[in-house]
Amino acid sequence: ETGVTQTPRHLVMGMTNKKSLKCEQHLGHNAMYWYKQSAKKPLELMFVYNFKEQTENNSVPSRFSPECPNSSHLFLHLHTLQPEDSALYLCASSHLGTSGASYEQYFGPGTRLTVT
Amino acid sequence: AQSVTQLDSHVSVSEGTPVLLRCNYSSSYSPSLFWYVQHPNKGLQLLLKYTSAATLVKGINGFEAEFKKSETSFHLTKPSAHMSDAAEYFCVVSSASGGSYIPTFGRGTSLIVHP
User: Which of B36, B45, B100, B104 best tests the A interface by mutation, with the highest count of A CBs <10 A?
Assistant: First the structure.
């Protein structure tokens, strides 16, 4: 399989549940990202990992916990979420340059999360 | 610091007429610029990118964009809209701001195509 895959595609969870979102990239990239996309709001960058090290955390609540065991896999662990956390969660990967290079991102199809 | 402004939240066109989606950017460094498209309930797909080569960039599905440094713009155009072009479009800037190349996304422009 090629590209960026995300599982599950849809998830409904209660506020007391614990669940995880999974992202996998088969493109040989060194950076992976989590974004939150809510209706009527701009795309929100949540976390960035570069070579498995977290380099960005945009003031995300602790009920979202990322994990990056290797450069190909990224998880988002969810616990005690709120209804306002319902959104499309997108994973992306790219090369990430540090000396004069910017590269395009490749996105997965997203996980549609509904918190009840 | 870097930022990007998509000047229209919605653009409505008739099928077969030209498309213009406007984007202005701000960057302290030489930027790379991208346009992505997102169809309903899908992830984002790269349309085209500018990375300091030719200022007129051709992308997929007949789209193109022109980098104008003097105007700090990177507008997306297509000569003739198709119904399948109806989607959300995002302009993105990436530069060495802050020592990394984390991209900054615009708020998106919804393209509506009428038959």
Answer: B100
The answer to whether A96 and A103 have CB atoms below 8 angstroms apart is: yes
Gyration radius from chain A CA atoms = 14
Amino acid B104 reads T
Q: Kindly report, residue by residue over A59-112, the tens digit of the pLDDT.
A: 899 999 999 999 899 999 999 999 999 999 999 999 876 654 668 899 999 999
Asked if A113 and A85 touch (Cβ cutoff 8 Å), the reply is yes
Residue B51 contacts A where some CB pair is shorter than 8 Å:
yes
Q: Is B44 part of the contact surface with chain A (CB cutoff 8 Å)?
A: yes
The residues with which B101 forms a beta bridge, in sequence order, are none
Q: Which two tokens stand for residue B99?
A: 């020592």
- Asked if B101 lies within 8 A of A42 by C-beta distance, the reply is no
In chain B, which residue's Cα lies nearest the Cα of A89? B43
A90 within 8 A of A74, measured Cβ to Cβ: no
DSSP letter for A108, please: -
Angle formed at CA B53 by CA A29 and CA B8, multiple of 5 degrees: 80
- Contact status, residue B88 vs residue B6, Cβ threshold 8 Å: no
- Tell me the C-alpha distance between A77 and A114, whole Å: 15
Please list, residue by residue across B38-52, b when 16 or more beta carbons sit within 10 angstroms of its beta carbon and e when fewer do: beeebbbebbbbbbe
Which chain A residues are closer than 8 Å to B42 by Cβ? 109-110
